[in-house]
Known about the structure:
binds magnesium ion
Amino acid sequence: MASTAAKAAAQIRERYLTWEGAPIADLPDRPKEWFIDLYSSMRYLRCVDERMLKLQRAGRIGFVGSMLGSEAVLVGAARAISSDDWLWSGLREGGAALLRGLPLSEYIAQMYCNSLDTAKGRQMCNHFQHKGSHYPSWSSVIGTQIPHGVGAAHAAKLRGLKEVHTIFFGDGATSSNGFHSGMNFAAVWKSPCVFVCVNNGWAISVPARAQTASGSYAQKALAYGMPGHQVDGNDPIAVHEALTALIERARSGAGPALLELVTYRMMGHSSSDDPTKYRDQKEVDLWTGRDPLPRFARFLDQKGWLDGAAAERLEAEHNRTIDAEIHVQEAAAPMPLRSLVEDVYAEVPLHLRKQYNDFHRIAERLGQAQPGDGAFPL
Ligand SMILES: Cc1ncc(C[n+]2csc(CCOP(=O)(O)OP(=O)(O)O)c2C)c(N)n1
Ligand SMILES: [Mg+2]
């Protein structure tokens, strides 16, 4: 166990690439296809994100929490978390879920909150979940996934399972009660989990420098009695290697660790936010120069593994896949109105039927009832 922990620490590097994409360390021993997949997957997530933002601006869907800029975090992580392991997330990890098994159809259905949405339209858009790939529904309430993930990791340990729970949250979430109680319990119990703090510089309009007086988020780990590492979150290789090492460390029984991934939120907090009101364009320009996609494209090009034309073909292919699925989801029916009162009781009780029937009469008068919607017999 001790040797696994030491090995994990030795495997973690702050970064593998310069901002220009030149290697500065020995690369992991992987075939070139593995590196090309990292790029292709980052491009895929960016295409998904750009399409969702356009749909929101066109009034087709209601809300997007953009993951633009964090693709290296999401891809490096998704490729490190095995299918037996779990992903507990906040607003921006839907892309990692997508790469781990959440179908694109369900992702987009959830954005439309239509009748194919597995959350049955009862969640705000951009609140995904997928049982099959161990991705629990997440809550808008900041930091609540942290104690939930720790509890699940502790339960797994009690049941003798070998799974590891990765728990993602933002820099802002480190100020929540859930962060402190989750970190403390996990360290005391030696729970099989890895805490991943995605430091994207901002919590809505609060800059990371105003969030904490600590020198880094990673160093908070020391107070709880676990290792903490800070890694370049715009380098998918560094993210992948660090998270893989800490997951295996946790699986060996050595307990939890905290991984801080430093990246940047390129867009506003959400599609409802205007960041020009509170942040300096110079900072955005600086991070635009550190964009993980062109950086990794330069790395692949220098290696002779993927040139600009091949990268463009990948992008066009991804957009075709995404557009085809958008057309399917646009055409899907909305959730039936009566689903509002279903699923809580085995049979809808009389008082809810009456309320629903009143509501249904109004919807009919306003032309908002759908074919198939109908009043309950009383
Ligand atoms: C308990 C709680 N307090 C406040 C909010 C409002 N809120 C929503 S997102 C957010 C900032 C989150 O920032 P961070 O954790 O850094 O994640 P990011 O959005 O940057 O990914 C806040 C304060 C909330 N949803 N829940
Ligand atoms: Mg943040």
